[in-house]
Design a protein that fits this description.
This protein has 344 residues and is of the alpha/beta class. It is built from 13 helices and 14 strands. The strands form 2 sheets. The chain has a 9-stranded mixed β-sheet, sandwiched between helices. The protein has a 5-stranded mixed β-sheet with strand order 3-8-7-2-4. The protein is globular. The model has no long low-confidence stretch (mean pLDDT 96). Bound molecules: 6N-dimethyladenosine. The site of 6N-dimethyladenosine has 21 residues, from strand 2, strand 3, helix 3, strand 8 and helix 12.
């Protein structure tokens, strides 16, 4: 990084979750009717998973939550603390302390809302080979309310930021907060970035997603998420290139800032859609023995992207950095890094 950035230039909202991660056999997924590479919200029948992972599968505890992951990774690459601000809701417990400590040691400026009588959220990460399936028990994270953003110091943080990033996952928690941040970004003509996050968001949260999409300047997603959106919209083609083109042309409030869509597809090239153009960015394929787990790869991609985007770098540089960051965290457990960033 060459010049100093304004503190708090990037604001994100999401679900702060502690990941409980373990390698499990396929029949573990089958017992809970889960699929490889899925991301779901825990129902009552999933609740035994967390205890089972700890007792029988030597689970690791890792800082998680999609937006918080992306912002931690952006901070790691930027090497300048407090560039990014994070809002989300936690309980008053040991897990919240761990999350806060990990976020702050990455340089992230966290402003948690604290819900006293509810535990901090957790996410089961079920690793099967190079796949990971996520089952989130949002708990305290589900209690985020817009009043937190209305507290004067937090309101000022939102108003003073230049870039905004929120996951589709947060649509399950508090759409009014998302709409507030989106409207602020729009009024100030600042970029608002969002992520499709998981197929279930398009399947079950399409109404709030459609409400915010007109404000979205940059939309991220992977192939399964893009296809779930297309299917929920009854778009005729499941072809990723067709879907990307439609996503950029879809209902946009500020036509002066045409939408950009960035679709990742694992180790296949990242696709960048801008108005009528589609560009491909190759991904360096890792050997299977280099892969520790793919948990957080998508979040790290966004983190790497954001680290450059807030410096005003070209989309080409942003995407290359996204690919660098995703490649790095795949070689580490969960969405964690080791050593100094090597992106130049
Ligand atoms: C609402 N849901 C389901 C979620 C999540 C989530 N973060 C926010 N909301 N489900 C899984 N995650 C996080 O995604 C990361 C991997 O991309 C996990 O905590 C994990 O760190």
């Amino acid at each position: 990084m060459t010049s100093t950035l304004q503190e708090g230039i990037l604001v994100g909202c999401g679900n702060p979750l502690l990941d409980i991660s373990a390698v499990v056999p396929m029949d573990f997924l089958q017992r809970y009717s889960m699929n490889e590479d899925d991301a779901i919200l825990a129902e009552d029948r999933h609740m035994p998973i967390y205890g089972e992972l700890v007792e029988g599968y030597n689970a690791e505890f890792l800082a998680g939550g999609s937006v918080q992951n992306s912002l931690r990774i952006a901070q790691w690459i930027l090497r300048q603390p407090r560039v990014a601000v994070f809002f989300g809701c936690v309980g008053e417990d040991r897990y919240a302390q761990i999350l806060k400590e990990k976020a702050q040691s990455a340089g992230l400026d966290v402003h948690y809302q604290v819900k006293r009588d509810v535990p901090t959220g957790t996410c089961a990460v079920l690793i099967t080979g190079t796949h990971r399936s996520l089952c989130a028990n949002l708990a305290a994270a589900n209690n985020f309310t817009i009043d937190h953003l209305e507290e004067p110091s937090n309101k000022a943080l939102v108003e003073n930021a230049q870039y905004y990033y929120i996951s589709g996952f947060f649509l399950t928690v508090n759409p009014p907060s998302i709409m507030r941040v989106a409207a602020t970004a729009h009024a100030k003509q600042r970029p608002f970035l969002m992520n499709l996050s998981a197929p279930f968001i398009s399947q079950f949260y399409m109404a709030p997603l459609l409400a915010v999409l007109p404000y979205v300047d940059i939309i991220f997603g992977n192939e399964a998420e893009a296809q779930a959106f297309a299917e929920a919209q009854s778009w005729p083609s499941g072809d990723l290139r067709e879907i990307g083109k439609r996503l950029v042309a879809f209902n946009k409030l500020n036509p002066a800032r045409p939408r950009i869509a960035i679709l990742t597809q694992g180790c296949d090239p990242v696709l960048l859609f801008q108005q009528d153009s589609v560009q491909e960015f190759p991904v360096t394929k890792l050997a299977v023995h280099e892969i520790v787990d793919t948990n957080g790869a998508g979040d790290a991609f966004v983190g790497g992207f954001l680290s450059q985007f807030v410096q005003g770098k070209s989309l080409d540089v942003c995407i290359r950095c996204g690919n660098y960051a995703a490649g790095h965290i795949i070689k580490n457990p969960g969405c964690t890094y080791s050593g100094e960033p090597e992106f130049v």
